[in-house]
Amino acid sequence: MSFENLGLSPYLSKAIAKNLGFIKPFEIQTESIPAILQGKDVMGIAKTGSGKTLCFVAPLLQKIQHQSYEKSRAVKALILVPTRELAVQIEQTFVALQEALRREVKTQAVYGGTSINPQMKNLYGTEILIATPGRLLDLMDHNAFTLDQLQYLVIDEADKMFQLGFGDEMDRILKAIPAKKQSILFSATLNEKVDEIKATLKIDPVVVEVKQQEVDLDAIEQIAYKVDDETKGPFLRYLIKSNQVTQALVFVSSTRTADNLVEKLKKNKIHALAIHSKKSQGARMDNLEDFKLGDVQILVATDLIGRGIHIEGLPTVINYELPRSPLDYVHRIGRTGRANATGKAISLITEEDLHHFKIIQKKMGKKVEIESTDDVNLHGY
Fold this sequence. Notes:
Order of helices and strands: HHEHEHEHEHEHHEHEEHEHEHEEHEHE
CATH architecture of the largest domain: 3-Layer(aba) Sandwich
CATH superfamily of the largest domain: P-loop containing nucleotide triphosphate hydrolases
Structural class: alpha/beta
Radius of gyration: 22 Å
Strand order of the largest sheet: 3-4-2-5-6-1-7
């Protein structure tokens, strides 16, 4: 099965392989892309890392590139997302496929945490708008665009919209959307709130459900090392400098620890950056992008990087500090070993962590060997 078999153009299929790394479609893509190309309303149930973004990006570009372009305030496609990071990531997927089109399709992501004025200026002539609910309503109140001629509505991570408290905003937005349009919903789970969206939109969509474990634990090699508080930092630097770690996402439990760890790594000539809630939106985006491009060896993060952020081919995740819940542990290590790739997850365990780590192993159904570090010479690290 190829992307051309699903109905995408040869040019788009080549760009998907060249710029996004998808050679063959994943199950969610195989099931949903033909239905979306046929103009059907679609509801996709799939976990993060399943390739769902491409399910709507490629068909929308293929359809809109053949439409005439008139610069106006009328948006043709609206994509609603719960977070700024996801908005930017989706915009980057659209940009990655532009070279395959007959003409450029103007796409823009808008989100809070940054000045509204540049977004307002750039909106004129935008055909595909990716937005978080709050910023979209701000721009609607400024009459920066119109939804009167909307043809396509996509709601990504529909379940999370309500978890994050966007219920009232969603009600306002959906009331402003014309009745006649194609609706595409993606969600990690089916629940009452997602059913409410379907009822509000008055749609009976084709339901595409990919039942799979959110994280393929068999694709992740898990290792734990017994350390104490004094040797934890030096041992991390030993792992990095002894070439056992080429590039890694390192998780910590607080912003303070993140900043302190980055400083220590930099002092030891290791290129590291941090991403957490106390960083400005611009700094977070820049640091994440530098890491994705491979310009930064170590990205130290709190659990701010939620589901939906995909770092292509991430080889290693390190738990410098364990998360509170076993589920968060699985989400963390699930940043590696995604989309048919293998990965490594390393946890640094102190005496105080041992009981909690046993609970984590029991909940995920996997035993992780804890190796001693007593014989490792950490002098100079």
